[in-house]
Amino acid sequence: MIDDKSPEQPTCQHDEEKDPNPLDVNISEERQTFIRKKFDFRLLPVVCILYVLSYLDRSNIGNAKTAGLDTDLHLNSYQWSWVLYSFYICYIVFEWSTILWKILPAHIYIACLCICWGAAAMSTGAVRTYPQLIACRCLLALFEAVFGCGAPYFLSLFYQRRELGYRMSFLLGMSPVANCFASALSYGISQIKGSLEPWRYIFIIGNPKEGIPTILFAPVVFYCLPDSPGTARFLTESEQTEAVERLQTLDRTAKNRLDWRQVTSGLTDYKNYIHTMIHFCCNYSFSGLSNFLPTILQSMGYTSVNAQGLAAPPYFASFLCCIAAATISDRWGNRGFIVTFSAIVGTAGYLILTCVQDESKTAARYAGVWLATMGIFPALSINITWMLNNQGGESKKGVGMAILAIFGQCSSLVSSSVFPSSDGPLYTMGCAIGCAFTGLIIVLALGLHISLTLENKRRDRVHGKVNQDDRVDVTADGDLNPKFRYLT
Q1: Which CATH code, of 1.10.10.10, 2.30.40.10, 1.20.1250.20, 1.10.3730.10, is assigned to 29-247+258-480?
Q2: 453 pLDDT exceeds 90?
Q3: φ, ψ dihedrals at 27, nearest 5°
Q4: What pTM was estimated for this model as a whole?
Q5: Are residues 471 and 250 in contact, defined by beta-carbon separation less than 8 angstroms?
Q6: Which Pfam family name is an example for this entry (predicted)?
Q7: Which of 381, 373, 377 is nearest to 353 (CA)?
């Protein structure tokens, strides 16, 4: 339990009369730890709970399919693809809204979203026809897109660059935990013997329980979620000042305004598009595993109920891998190597699923599932962290995150159509594409790592070496400031 009593004598040495946002500040390590733990215990849990609630709603669709949803609604492979397409198309269309986190007060904005997506989730339990299912998925996507792609950007406003990886992996690691929970929950629900089809129980029991807490959680968000480090209600005025000044980049742009120089820089920065390509490759598996992993396991000969249960352990293992990868990369700093290693593990998993064509070798194929999940989720979370670490300014962060989210999410449309029932039980096409995309991550991550390392060395040679903890004003020049150094 954290003692909210502030350590004595806050050490923040500067002359505020000369400059309200100085570059030369000295905040003690004790104070830094105190403020960081405040955010860890008062901010991070709220954002993580929201992320789990939002992710649970979409992940149940794959479990419902193995329980007979497509059969009972008489959906063919083409129609089922559009059930998935409808969500991802709407999600992609509204992911530009990441930039609204920069403009609107988060505690009001997100509290309203909680109510909206909770209501949409609860409505899924009442679907009786194909159009109704499509409509519910569209509404769910509309409200979740606004939160899902903005949450990583939001956390980057509160933590230093080398603190962000662990917190980001904890947040994005909630995705496999949510999948783990959803699979375990569906396993139990599917065993209910009643008058309705098993898949209906997944929605009737699952979604209202997911939707109601989301709505009830809205007041918690309204009163507990801070808009920025400088306005956090759980910090004193002096702590708010320290929370802002301890960050390694200083952006003097007003909280509710965009800096259009940074927007242009974000749109023209090649690094953002490499991160987007990596995210595109990661997201193919991120969405594909959520939608089709129970189906792939069922095709190995397991019953629908057992397939849902067997999907949970790999997801939990991938969460642990996310935390381990983040801890190592925060301490070591070479995020490119972590993404590369994770991609190698994921590629090996997909290679097993593609090459093992003997249906009787279920152990080998199940091992492939483990490797694929344990490789993809850490690569995805560290890549997003890496991108946010190297953005100069809040407006550029918002633009970079929007580009990554919009174009990177498009691979969800690919994964939604390359696991048709006709390709079962091995689903070779979908697994082979996953192997190719995951292998491409290796090339992209290594290339970007080398490029950033060379740029840092060039700046050291031309402008002199700098301390990685020095504060840099990125308002005008962004990450082109001669004192800015990229995390590689």
Answers
A1: 1.20.1250.20
A2: yes
A3: -100, 125
A4: 0.81
A5: yes
A6: MFS_1
A7: 373
